[in-house]
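Batch job 17 of 40 flagged for manual review because the log was empty.
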Amino acid sequence: MKRLQPKQFLPFFICLVGLIITIFAWSLLDGQQNTEKKAGKADFLRQNKAFPDELHWLARTYPNYTPDIASYQNILLKARKTDAQTKAMRQGKSGFDNEWVLQGPSNISGRINVIALDPSNPDSVWYVGAARGGVFKTTNAGTNWTPIFDAQNTLSIGAIAIDPTNTKTIYVGTGDVNISSFFAVGDGLYKSTDGGQTWQNIGLKNTYIISDIVINAQNPAIVYVSSMGNPMLKDTTSRGIFKTEDGGKNWEHLFSASDRTGVIDLEIDPVYPETLYAATWDRIRSLYESSTLSAGQKIFKTINGGDTWQALGNGLPTTDSTSRVGLSISHQNNEHVFCVYVGNNEELQGIYKSENSGEDWSLIGDTDILPGDSPLGGFGWYFGKLHVNPFNDQQILMGGVYLFQTKNGGTKWELAGSVWSTHADKHDIAFIDEKTLLLATDGGLYKSTDGGTSWTDVENLPITQFYRVAYNPHLPGTYYGGAQDNGTLGGNSNDLLNWQEYYGADGFLPAFSPFDANIMFAAWQNGGLVMSLDAGNNFDAATDGIDNADRINWDMPYVLSPIVSGLMFCGTHRVYKSTTTNGFPVWEPISDDLTQGNIYGARFHNISTVEASPHDLNIIFAGTSDGRLWRSLTGGTTWDEIVKGLPNLYFTSVKASPQYPNQLFCTVSQYKGNGDIPLIYSSNDLGENWTGIQGNLPPFSINDLEVLPNHADSVLFVATDGGVYGSLNAGKNWERLGNNMPWIGVFDLAYDPVNNRLIAGTHARSIMSFELDSLGLNNPNVGISQPQYPDKDNEDGQYQVIYNSTERQLLFHSLPDDNDVVPQVILFNQAGQKLLQTSLANNKLSLPLQLPQGLYFVTIIGHNRQNTQKVLIW
């Protein structure tokens, strides 16, 4: 894992402070929501200005904002069945069955929720569960890792437990236990009896998020599971504590606090396994409510295996509103129980200790005692876990933005390691021995061999969660992406462990000028945009002119014109244009509000996608999060809505054809009903009319579309919540691409024309690539038959120029057959700058490898004629 270098501290710190302030505002809002009687949905949203789940569920639930998890699960099951049947019929003879290649990174990892150690070999055999990327296992202390859960329906992991009497038996609970704004639900509990080689779902499918699993070591057939349920809905049946006495064949629902309160932590007494402690948490995270606070956060205890439960007190907080609670038990003295309470400001309220099995509690740590002013960064709901060293209960650690510890039972607290020694946001700790610890963070796994004083990276865990991916035309084969909590990254498979981090925060779309190799852009949440003039070494703000009061998507769309250097467009609730050619962009609005208006709040009504035509600099497109799609033919002076024949859904992408000026594509997303509404459309008249091209494509949410150049728009690829699908016949038929990508969400696609690769930005397993040569597309329409532009003095002197992307050559046709004349060819860029001039041999012109993609002018002189045409280079 690569950490921010000193030059990046300032932007990272600014982003972190902004995030903390934002989440602190959420926490205050949550407290208001808990005490307020809910009105109708629209009224509630207007009155409370709720912050929804801006990208994931919002995009998949517009316009009714009601999640339909059952539809998604049904779509997934049907898609898996169809894919298996298709692969069986092909018998490996199709290029669609080739494998995806991991491009990286492996040194900058993603969020890990849980760590589990093999009790019989804790030095070497470890398991980690990722927020989206599944379960990984190492048998050599982290040198190499193997994904062991990829064949399952969901790779979002909340808990792992290993049978201490038979370490081949492993339980995995699915669902994202930290319930952030981008959480994923699971499909129950899985069990392996062969060390993770095979798995069986053993029930609890409707628990959605499993937070903990504990095993009775004296009778390992008895297993307890705690659940947070579906945070988007109120339901008692999915929340609470469940028990099996036969290893998972049958389950009993032991405990539920309320229809909105789950159990976030569960501990079992190491001496008396009939005694358990449970921490409850009132957590709702829907599109119109985000609640973390209530009086319902309590600690419960049972001494009879869950038959009865008693709420504990006597020294614990008694305020009307607290947040998340975490638990831990001493393995040296089982009567010593510890807990942490997050307060109503989402900061640390207190760390407490009981010396009589929970009967009485005393404060051993709070914000005044711990170093720093904000141990939990103002979003303590994201952490709330406590870890007592099982070999030395004088050492207690608490994770937050940073890691805190006491080595004397709570008398004195300090940072465990330097601030920058690990990635921010700590989620779990496992103890190999008294001095050797593993730490799970938002940026992967770390190891300490000195009790937490110093830390080293544990690498080779490709679980980075990318939002966007990009291809740099000046560095073919090098790929870039914006990742959750890991900023803007770049690298490739040749150096998996040395990817570079260019910018911090939550990264979104990187972009590169096709005209200048030194110009690079990086984006971060809520409209952050920076620009580099030195190929990514230094960045400065690039948002001059954008009104901060505008409604901006969490992932603000922007695009660089492929025709004119310096021309850019971006979207808030209106479209902005920048035409700066020297230095940094200066933006000005070129449209009114293109959404339906500020009905529910800023997050519900903004522009979600923009596109600039590669054929005409005056043609621009913009799609919104509330079902509107617009076109300007006048450079933004006027706008026409082009939604005839389209559904009222969230627009995820609009793409202009790279080949035909009037051809256009768009994609939308939803999960509702039978999935009988097409989610991908094409138009051959710039959006005047639309045709659904869903074909047999499963109705997953479509997150992005890539049109392969030079194939007459017949070769299409889509990024979906179930991987990547491709069509070789313009959308009539679709097949899932590759045989080794798990069923994960792919959020963005890019195309590398030099290597003929499709690049996928996954939100679970880093960046992957697919070699398109395997699809047998060796005889494409290799160029673009552009409209003819004869010289004004010689209208008959036309020729045809075609770009062959495979050979990176310009091919000239319809030239006079005269061997005595050697024509001259001149290549100009859009600024009129001459790039090369040479004699034409064999009607072919080889292009420099460093020539970036874009539109160019080609002039040919000979046979007493001069003629100029446009050509698109990919």
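Reviewer: the log was empty due to a logging misconfiguration, but the result itself is present. The longest strand covers residues 854-862. Unflagging and moving on to job 18.
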